[in-house]
Amino acid sequence: MFSIQSSMMIIFILLIMMITILNLTSKKTFYDKEKNSPFECGFDPKTHSRIPFSLHFFLIAIIFLIFDVEIALILPMVMNMSSSQMLIYTSNFFIIILISGLYHEWHQGALKWLK
């Protein structure tokens, strides 16, 4: 019984020594706290969370996601372009819808970076 207690005590002392050596020799300083804090879309999450959010940033992100998914759908169509006449009509119709959506977004002003 004494052996288990003494080995537990030795392990605990070694653990405390290793933690203190690690804290003393680490290069982490107080000034690294800002670098490790999360950064969410241009505002500090540790402050008031209901500050006005730029809706333009959100619209650009949604437009990027929509066009990114459409590009992922266009790439397989290019590979199978010669296989069927119906596929060519379908892909042309899809590209026309894509271009008309881009034209609509452009005329609505959603693609302007500066306002």
TrEMBL record:
Protein name as annotated: NADH-ubiquinone oxidoreductase chain 3
The keyword Translocase is annotated on this UniProt entry: yes
One Gene Ontology CC term in the entry: mitochondrial membrane
Gene Ontology terms for molecular function: NADH dehydrogenase (ubiquinone) activity
Coiled-coil segments on the chain, per record: none
Keywords, ordered alphabetically: Electron transport, Membrane, Mitochondrion, NAD, Respiratory chain, Translocase, Transmembrane, Transmembrane helix, Transport, Ubiquinone
Record-linked PANTHER family: NADH-UBIQUINONE OXIDOREDUCTASE CHAIN 3
Pfam families reported in the protein's UniProt record: Oxidored_q4 (PF00507)
Primary role: Core subunit of the mitochondrial membrane respiratory chain NADH dehydrogenase (Complex I) which catalyzes electron transfer from NADH through the respiratory chain, using ubiquinone as an electron acceptor. Essential for the catalytic activity of complex I.
Family, similarity comment: Belongs to the complex I subunit 3 family.
Compartments, as annotated in UniProt: Membrane; Mitochondrion membrane
EC number: 7.1.1.2
Top-level enzyme category: translocase
Xref: InterPro entries: NADH_UbQ/plastoQ_OxRdtase_su3 (IPR000440), NDAH_ubi_oxred_su3_sf (IPR038430)
Transmembrane segments: 6-25, 55-75, 87-106
Classification of source organism: Eukaryota, Metazoa, Ecdysozoa, Arthropoda, Hexapoda
Catalytic reactions of this protein: a ubiquinone + NADH + 5 H(+)(in) = a ubiquinol + NAD(+) + 4 H(+)(out)
Gene: ND3
Topology relative to the membrane: Multi-pass membrane protein
Main location: membrane
Domain of life: Eukaryota
